[in-house]
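Form 7-S
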Amino acid sequence: MNQILVSEKLYITPELKRKKRMYKIDFFISIFLVCILFSYYIYAEYDKNKNEAISQEILSNLNFEDNITDDTTIKFSNNSIVVILNTEDPSEVIYSEPVEEGSADDNIEWLQTAAGTRYYALATINIPSINCTYPVLDRSTDELLKIAPCKFWGADPNEIGNFCIVGHNYRSNKFFSHVPELTVGDKIEITSLKGETLVYSVYDKYIVEPEDVSCTSQRTNGLKEITIITCTNDSKQRVIVKAREVE
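Output:
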C-alpha cells in the first residue's frame, strides 16, 4: 500500500526534466516563427494592395488621346528594343538595338517611384474574360513589376511585330493571376498611346522554362501580335499566352 502512495515527484527523472525543458523551448520557438511568418504575410499583402492601388490610379488618370499626337516619337530604356523590319519581307528582322531613355514629346506623363525610378504607361491591357485591366509600363524591372504589368520586349503596342508583356501571378485577383486560365479564342484589348484600341484573339497557350524566351520572337509574318508572360502557380515555370489581332 505504501508503494502505491509514493509521491509522483519521485518518478520525475533528470531526463524527463530535460525533455520538458526542450519541449517548452521548441514551443516558444514555434510561436516566434509563426508570428514572423504571419507578420511577413500581412506586410506582403499590404504591399500588394498598395501597388494595386497605385496601378489603378495610373489607369484612372490615363487619357492617351489628349496626351499624345500622331507625330510623337518615344524612346524606351535600355531594357527595351527598337525592331527594324525588312519592308519587302516584314517577317524578317534586319536588326534590333537598345535606345536611351527619353521622349521627343513633353506631353508624355512621366511618373516616379519612391526610389526615384522614372517611368510611364505606354498602353493599357484589358482582358474581359478574367476581369483584368491594367496599365502597361514602358519597361520591366523588379521595382516596376510590383506596380503593374510591363513591356518585356518587342514591338510597340498595336504595331507590326510581337508586343511582349510580363506581369506577376500573385495567385489572387491581382495582376496576371488569372492569365493561366485563358483559353483559345479569349479576347485581349490593347490601347496604345495614340488612343487606338485593337482587339486580339488568343490562339495558343503553353508553358516553358524560365530561360526560354523564344516566345519573344518578332517573326510574325507582318502581323500584329501580343505575348503575355507570367508565372505558373508554383512559380517554377512560365505561362505563355499568344494572341493575334482580330481583323
